[in-house]
Amino acid sequence: MIIIREANYNDLEGIARVHVESWRSTYTGIVSEVYLSKLTLETRKKNWEWTFNHLDQDDKIFVAEDEGKIVGFSTGGRNRVDTTEYEGELYAIYILQEYQGKGIGKKLVQEVMNALKEMNYLSMLVWVLELNPAMAFYRKLGGEVLTRKEIKIGENLLFEVALGWRNLDLP
After folding, report:
1. What is the DSSP string of 63-106?
2. From CA 69, how far away is CA 165, in angstroms rounded?
3. pLDDT tens digits for 7-39?
């Protein structure tokens, strides 16, 4: 049975593992193999350790757990780009490939939305690589395309798309 709960410092290794494995399964053929091959659990653990030690009061991290094993996570908080009308932001959501398509992603997004509502935020956006197969997931959840921008990941020039929700209720 999948349990969704707020993450804590003890979850950082599980979150880092999901992060690395999800990047490799999701972005193969989108991001260079050289870049993906350089992703390491140790580096991601250090990144997540830093994140847990520097959380802003509005930052929230949630995990999806299956029998004690972290199989997905989501994180969000105040919009990091103040140039939009969207107050909140879904910073990231990743789920191990074998757990995708089971409703876990929707629950993880809803947890972030609920946390944003508790902070009196009314809207949210997420930045997604345009070629990410999860674009359909965000559209199904009611995300509307707002804008796009070019970004560089490793040696790849890619486009990120912002999708937004004007209210924090999923369909």
Report:
1. EEEETTEEEEEEEEEE-S-TTSS--EEEEEEEE-GGGTTSSHHH
2. 31
3. 999 999 999 999 999 999 999 999 999 999 999
**Closest to 61 measured CA to CA, from 52, 69, 70, 53:** 52
Helix (H, G, I), strand (E, B) or coil at 157: strand
Instruction: Find the angle CA(20)-CA(116)-CA(69) to the nearest 5 degrees.
Output: 35
Distances (CA, A) of 2 to 35, 70, 99, 106: 31, 9, 10, 13
Which long-range contacts link 133-136 to residues 24+ away (Cβ below 8 Å)? 133/26, 134/26, 134/105, 135/161, 135/163
Single-letter residue type at 27: Y
Q: What angle do CA 106, 136, 97 make, to 5 degrees?
A: 60
pTM for the whole structure? 0.95
Separation in Å, CA 140 to CA 111, 115, 170: 17, 21, 9
Query: pLDDT tens-digit profile of 143-170?
Result: 999 999 999 999 899 999 999 999 998 8
Give the closest residue to 77 by CA, choosing from 132, 45, 125, 44.
125
Neighbours of 35 (CB within 10 A): 14
